[in-house]
């Protein structure tokens, strides 16, 4: 059982994993390079542990000791006890959920291993907003998508905000990166997937038409905020799809569009 240790110095090296959490550029470089990510809040920390991620350490304020007692008891990692004020000094923001955990990343699986068993996958190309990535993962988990594949430039699903917005879905849903995108779109075809690219184009079929086809294996492709899918991704797709809309609205936020697409093609 880990014994909580009080830390009073914001510069204590034991708190290194938690420093400057609001500096997005810094964390994008540090976290993958150091093999860590940050889980925030009781539910997300529990889901990370349940998903088999290794706990590096916990950062808790005193009021969370009883709530997290079972996690602490099972932890083979340091538990740093800090005041809310110190936590804010270290992280750069008010940690209103009171509990943070530094977790070890897992090696990403081979895309082919994921595609061998999956029947419906989401492909996210160059989506740079962490909240959108987290929301897409949450939608995918809630609506029965088997896995998520990311282009190399897509935002990190294990960045703190993405994990938080997904409510831990990024820790439970299989995912990996496609290292040679969009050339890797051919891998989807070789595994029997119909690839459907969401875009605004007169050649696009409607989402209802796609759903009516009921393909045995389906890959739903979504592009970056604003510009959408790249020409290379569109060229690699088997079909283009649009979500019909009213009131002069031409498109939805990518996270909202993913929810609509996942729901319409379920089952």
Topology, element by element:
Blueprint: E1 5-6, H1 24-34, E2 36-40, H2 42-50, E3 55-60, H3 69-74, E4 79-81, H4 84-91, E5 99-104, H5 111-117, E6 120-124, H6 130-142, E7 147-150, H7 160-165, H8 169-172, E8 175-177, H9 185-190, E9 194-198, E10 205-206, H10 207-213, E11 218-222, H11 231-236, E12 239-242, H12 254-264
Parallel strand pairs: 1-4, 3-4, 6-7, 6-11, 7-8, 9-11, 9-12, 10-12
Antiparallel strand pairs: 2-5, 3-5
Helix pairs in contact: 6-12
Protein name: RNA methyltransferase
Organism: Streptomyces albidoflavus
GO molecular function: methyltransferase activity
Task: Provide a quick synopsis of the model.
By secondary structure, the protein is α/β, with parallel strands linked by helices. The protein has helices spanning 24-34, 42-50, 69-74, 84-91, 111-117, 130-142, 160-165, 169-172, 185-190, 207-213, 231-236, 254-264, and strands spanning 5-6, 36-40, 55-60, 79-81, 99-104, 120-124, 147-150, 175-177, 194-198, 205-206, 218-222, 239-242. Helix content is 35%, strand content 19%.
């Amino acid at each position: 059982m880990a014994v909580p240790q009080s830390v009073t110095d914001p510069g204590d090296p034991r708190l290194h994993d938690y420093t400057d959490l609001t500096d997005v550029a810094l964390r994008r470089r540090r976290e993958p390079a150091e093999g860590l990510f940050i889980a925030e809040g009781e539910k997300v920390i529990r889901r990370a542990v349940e998903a088999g991620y290794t706990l590096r350490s916990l950062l808790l304020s005193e009021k969370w000791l009883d709530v997290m007692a079972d996690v602490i008891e099972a932890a083979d990692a340091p538990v740093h006890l800090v005041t809310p004020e110190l936590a804010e000094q270290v992280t750069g923001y008010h940690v209103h959920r009171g509990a943070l955990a530094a977790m070890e990343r897992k090696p990403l699986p081979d895309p082919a291993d994921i595609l061998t068993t999956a029947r419906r996958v989401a492909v996210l190309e160059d989506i740079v907003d962490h909240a959108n990535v987290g929301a897409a993962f949450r939608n995918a988990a809630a609506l029965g998508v088997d896995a998520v594949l990311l282009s190399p430039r897509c935002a990190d699903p294990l960045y703190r905000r993405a994990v938080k917005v997904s409510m831990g879905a990024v820790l439970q849903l299989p995912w990996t990166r496609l290292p040679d995108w969009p050339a890797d779109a051919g891998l989807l075809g070789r595994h029997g997937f119909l690839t459907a690219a969401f875009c605004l184009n007169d050649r696009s079929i409607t989402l209802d038409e796609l759903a009516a086809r009921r393909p045995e294996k389906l890959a739903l492709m979504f592009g970056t905020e604003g510009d959408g899918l790249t020409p290379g991704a569109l060229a690699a797709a088997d079909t283009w799809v649009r979500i019909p809309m009213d009131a002069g609205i031409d498109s939805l936020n990518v996270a909202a569009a993913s929810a609509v697409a996942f729901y319409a093609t379920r089952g």
